[in-house]
Structures are given as structure tokens and as C-alpha cells.
Design a protein that fits this description.
Layout lengths: L18 H18 L13 E6 L5 H12 L3 E6 L11 H10 L4 E6 L4 H12 L4 E7 L5 H15 L13 E5 L6 H13 L2 E5 L7 H4 L22 E4 L3 H4 L4 E4 L15 H8 L14 E3 L12 H4 L7 H20 L4
Parallel strand pairs: 1-2, 1-3, 3-4, 5-6, 5-8, 6-7, 8-9
Helix pairs in contact: 1-5, 1-11, 2-11, 3-4, 5-6, 5-11
This protein binds N-carbamoyl-L-aspartate.
N-carbamoyl-L-aspartate (NCD) binds next to helix 2 and helix 6.
């Protein structure tokens, strides 16, 4: 493992992540990627520790890859699914967390449909003075740090497989397209990509651009970079109500699922029109750099935010390698949080 300082006790958001922390995660994940390429893919690092996956909201890849990551590190895993738990009998979230604490859980991986639940559990653990770490696996429309970190790992390892690091994205043009309003993935990615010095272009219909960002749009040109992040030396966030300017010469395109389950109003005329205007297709990626790569956190609405053909095209699509990277990145996070507890 790379020698490093890691003082973080919980991973709840990327808003205050430092460049050194990003690089620690990337380098640690690269070491675990190597472990995962061996015949014996398991290391004894977290032997005896308990990782509890507390998923109060549905998940396929995030839950499974956290579970596999924990198992590859030899931790014992507990899986909780709200629908089949005592929450149906009225138990509260904090009481559920305390139940897992009483069983000796060391790391809680928490997903919830409401923003702030992982923070609330972390605050309760800190209040109780226990050493339990909390990892946010997606909270409402707030953040999804491990997804953004695995996206970062996927694209930086593509550029330099031997040494993925934040600086590799400096000056790269990255488009984030789709349902930004409801996307915790976009929010976490914006933090990491801004920190890398990449040029980040958000493209969505006005109804799907969050108010926080919409107020910065320049009426005349519909595009304007803004000092959203006051401590960032060169703010490089651009907003577009059309797809084309975001795609032009882009190095990477991150597509986002239309989160129909979170839509409380009619934000789109029709899925067909959305696909026509903002769906990423083989034709539209021709606007990008010739070697552009397309990402999607999954699950995908095929033929809506991305065409089926492009999604399955190995020349452009990084979707499967994002899933593969997810295990190494989550091993890195569990290792960094868990190794101090032994
Ligand atoms: C994302 C999520 O749940 O936030 N998916 C994921 O974790 N792989 C994105 C989504 O649901 O669209």
C-alpha cells in the first residue's frame, strides 16, 4: 500500500476533500486493482472487522460492490434491507444503526433516500464516543462520494494506468449531461472534477438544472463560468441549456439517469423529446474529441439518456469498467477507514 496520511474518520461528502486525499484514494485503489488481478483476490487487511451495509434505498451495484470489497478485505459483512427489516415494525434509523453498533460493527455503509441520513448516523456515533466510521453510499439528492471517486479512478487510470492521480484531469473538458437537479452523483463529481482543474460543463434542460446553479446562467449566451467555489483558483464550471456546446471537444461525457422516482412535477415534455435533445448517441459523440469516453453510473434507462448502441460500444463506453473500478475504490475506502481500527 502507498505510504500516506489519512485522518478522515467518515466519508460523507467530497466538498472538503483535499487533493492529497483524492490521490491517496486513487493510489490505494490502484494497489487493490492489482490485488484483484491476482489468482487469489483476497487480502487479510480487515480480518475480524465488521462492515454493515445499511441500505434504506434500493441498489444493485453500490451495495454489491461494497459487499464484495469488504469480503476481498476479509471483513465480515452484514447486509440490511429496509423492506425486510424491523423498520417495518416502527424502529427508527438511529435505533437500527445502534443495533448494528451493538453487534460490533466497525464501518457502516449508509444509503438513504433522504439527504443527511449518513451524517446523522455519523454524528450519533461520534456523540456516543465510538470508533465506528460511516461511509455515505448515496443520500437523497445530496452526495454519492464513492461513485464520484470510482468515476475519477476510471478516467485517471485510463490516462495513466500505473499512476492514477488528480492532476491528470487538469484542462480536460468533461461534460455532465442530464438530470443534474436530482443527481447526487453529479454533485459529488462536480467537487472532484473542480478540484482536479478540469473544465466541467453541465448540460440539461432548464428544468433539470438545479436552482443553485441556474442563477449563474448568463441570459444572453446561456453559458458562463462562475466563481461557485470561492477557494478554487480557476473556477471552471459552465452551464448549458443545450447539449452541443457541452459536447464540443469534450474528453469525457458523464451521462446521468433521469431519476423519475424523484420527479414530483412534470419537468419534461416527453422522454422521446428528451432523448432527441439531450440523449447521448453515436452521432452526437462525434462532436467530442475523437477518443472521447462516455460514463454512466447506472442503472441506465436505455434509449433515454444514452442510446443502447452507444452504451454497448466498447470503443466509447466505460460503463462496465466503472462497475469493475467500483470494487477497488470501495476496497480503498474501507481500508483507509478501517485500518486505523485494528
Ligand atoms: C446512482 C445512485 O443511486 O445515486 N447509481 C449508483 O449508485 N450506481 C445513480 C442513479 O440512481 O441514477
Amino acid at each position: 500500500m502507498p505510504t500516506t496520511t489519512w485522518n478522515r474518520h467518515h466519508v460523507l461528502s467530497l466538498a472538503d476533500f483535499t487533493a492529497a486525499e483524492y490521490n491517496t484514494v486513487l493510489q490505494t485503489a490502484a494497489s487493490f486493482q492489482e490485488v484483484l488481478s491476482r489468482r487469489t483476490k483476497k487480502v487479510p487487511t480487515l480480518q475480524g472487522q465488521v462492515v454493515a451495509n445499511l441500505f434504506f434505498e434500493s441498489s444493485t451495484r453500490t451495495r454489491s460492490s461494497f459487499e464484495l470489497a469488504a469480503k476481498r478485505l476479509s471483513a465480515d459483512t452484514l447486509n440490511f434491507a429496509a423492506a425486510s427489516s424491523s423498520m417495518t415494525k416502527g424502529e427508527t434509523i438511529l435505533d437500527t444503526a445502534k443495533t448494528y453498533l451493538a453487534m460490533g460493527t466497525d464501518i457502516m455503509v449508509v444509503r438513504h433516500r433522504e439527504a443527511g441520513v449518513p451524517n446523522a448516523i455519523a454524528a450519533e456515533m461520534d456523540r456516543l464516543g465510538v470508533k465506528v466510521s460511516v461511509l455515505n453510499a448515496g443520500d437523497g439528492q445530496h452526495e454519492h462520494p464513492s461513485q464520484a471517486l470510482l468515476d475519477l479512478f476510471t478516467i485517471t487510470t485510463l490516462i495513466d494506468p500505473a499512476s492514477p492521480r488528480l492532476e491528470l484531469l487538469k484542462g480536460k473538458k468533461i461534460a455532465i449531461v442530464g438530470d443534474i437537479l436530482h443527481s447526487r452523483v453529479a454533485r459529488s463529481n462536480i467537487w472532484s472534477l473542480i478540484a482536479s482543474g478540469a473544465e466541467v460543463h453541465l448540460a440539461a434542460p432548464p428544468t433539470l438544472l438545479p436552482k443553485l446553479f441556474a442563477e449563474y446562467i448568463c441570459e444572453e449566451s446561456e453559458v458562463r463560468s462562475q466563481e461557485l467555489f470561492s477557494d478554487s483558483p480557476t473556477p471552471q464550471l459552465f452551464l448549458h441549456w443545450q447539449l452541443e456546446p457541452a459536447l464540443e471537444n469534450a474528453d469525457f461525457v458523464m451521462t446521468l439517469r433521469l431519476q423519475k422516482e424523484r420527479m414530483t412535477a412534470h419537468l419534461l415534455p416527453s422522454l422521446r423529446e428528451y432523448h432527441q435533445l439531450f440523449g447521448i448517441t453515436s452521432t452526437k459523440v462525434q462532436l467530442c474529441k475523437p477518443n472521447v469516453k462516455v460514463l454512466h453510473p447506472g442503472p441506465v434507462n436505455r434509449g433515454v439518456e444514452i442510446s443502447s448502441e452507444l452504451m454497448d460500444d466498447p470503443e466509447f463506453s466505460l460503463i462496465q469498467s466503472q462497475v469493475t473500478s467500483g470494487v477497488a475504490v470501495r476496497m480503498a475506502l474501507l481500508y483507509l477507514l478501517g485500518s486505523g481500527k485494528a
